[in-house]
Amino acid sequence: MKVKKILVSQPRPTSDKSPYFDIAQKYGVDIDFRPFIKVEGLTAKEFRQSKITISDYTAIIFTARTAVDHFFRLCEEMRVTIPDTMKYFCTTESIALYLQKYTLYRKRKIFHGNTGKMEELIPFLTKHNKENYLYAVSDVHKEDTSLLDNAKIRYTKAVMYRTVSTQFDPNEKFDYDMLLFFSPAGIASLLKNFPDFKQDDVKIGCFGLTTAQAVKDAGLRLDIEAPTVSAPSMTAALDNFLRDEAAEEAKA
User: Which residues does the UniProt record annotate as the domain Tetrapyrrole biosynthesis uroporphyrinogen III synthase (predicted)?
Assistant: First the structure.
């Protein structure tokens, strides 16, 4: 097979049951895992520069567990006492349940959607329209806030963490036949670490429409895309690609 060595731009799976390991064995390919990006929390000093006073708010909007972690970290660093009356609005149930790490779970103060889409939260937010909402986000957040604006929700976006590129050693080998990406920031990191990168025969795969657009905007060729009807996950898309490649080689 032409593809022998694959780089997945995510941390190595913690479970041996990951489909990636099955694919590696099935097709006899090597799969490495290396995040191209990492998340850093803003320091208390940096957050204070935003002039946002957390105690002024009566409710928090969370769209990621990472946001939950950095909200409570900043509160601890700045010695902010969170009142028991604080309400939390989460885009998924998993984020809502994750709050148990930091606060007692009570249905009367924690509300959530199911699909991760903001529109599912709007009925809860409008029902509690007297609240002053703090919306915890990253520096590269893509969430559409027009729904909040149209619903006349009183909110303030607060950047609490940022995405930065992982630094590769200039002398380390980068001899992969395929690269798999999961965010536009990953593409930006590739170009930052390897400004002279030439794609040539290297296959590039990605997950998500915004990542696919970032690949195209960078002038790169997109060879594998997920999710699709036939490939709802990145591993399914990879399996399909390698299967087709093996079939073509068998015919030759």
Answer: 25-235
